[in-house]
Amino acid sequence: MNRNLWLLALAQGLFLTNNVTFIAINGLVGLALAPVGWMATLPVMGYVVGGALSTGLVARVQSRLGRKASFQTGLAVAILSCLLCAWAVSHKDFWMLMAGTVIAGYYSANAQLYRFAAAELAVASYREKAVSLVLAGGLMGAVVGPALATHSRSLLSVPFAGAYLVLAAVALLAMLVLSFITFPPAPVKSTGTDGRPLREIMRQPVFLVSASAAALGYGVMNLLMSATPIAMQQCSHPFESAALVLQWHVIGMFAPGFFTGHLIRRFGVMPILWTGVVLNLACVALALSGVEVMRFVLALFLLGVGWNFLFTGGTTLALQSYRPEEKDKAQAAINFCVFGVMALSSFSSGALVTTQGWTLLNWGSLFPLGLIAMSLLWYSRRGRLALQAGSARS
Predict the structure, then answer these.
(1) The predicted structure's pLDDT at residue 191
(2) CA 255, CA 7: separation in Å to the nearest integer?
(3) Domains (ranges, CATH) in the chain?
């Protein structure tokens, strides 16, 4: 169990290396190739939208091929998409670049299931820690991704063409790592079906709360993180300061993975979700208190830790919402919610910070945070009422 989890954490780290580098260079390549300026960020959007559109297909492939073969298929798609992007850069073809980034979304949607696979590699008493540990593997992407983007940019005569080829090699290395992981066999589906209808699964309070915590928490993080470099530029801070802020933000996102599972195991998932909300509120308060570099650093670090608590807690809670034979469609539905909110926040972040400003953007982020808080209050109240009803009957 431990060997498989560490290998899966390494695969997660390679995915985040690919992911961070891909997002870092797509905007710059888009700016160089886009027919008009406002289209520069479309490749970044294409990556997120491609992930959202792929969730259903990924679920079907997972159901048919199983975890290992499906994950390897996702990595093969990653290699293909990187080669397409390298060709597009070399031939200055913006629309081929768009096609490559949308196709790469399939790999992203596939790799988002690593955290659920981690729970299946562990005994029931270790599931929270397993999910947390595999997410912590993303810390590798925080360190390697930016360095990889910087040093691979000029490998070939055409800027960034070499970077995409290096990302194809990273995906190939991940295929090798996954080949050594032994996943448990797929559960036998009872009575020849795949369990309850998806609509019934999604109506459960535990599903609604877990999906809202994971998706809205991701949306707030993406909204503020994507706007930070623009906001810092508007405040006349140098690019090096923005890079420092984002580095600490990503450390905040993934470093807590080494202990979040222990905290969930000791205190329960609901206190961790509430802590995630409070940390996000603290981020907003700091961001609104001033625009010095250190305030950006602390605010974005808290944002990263808050995201980790909400995403890890939401994933852990989601494990209670489906039966083994229902996992593929239930996990696909959760990831679709995450990608959908990410697409919306990616689209709106740049537009809002450039037209409304950093201050109003932070005030606006309180709305999704309020939705998370209300869902947690509603879920806790339902639990108390159910407990009171059970006590009355007894």
Answers:
(1) 53
(2) 17
(3) 1-182 (1.20.1250.20), 196-394 (1.20.1250.20)
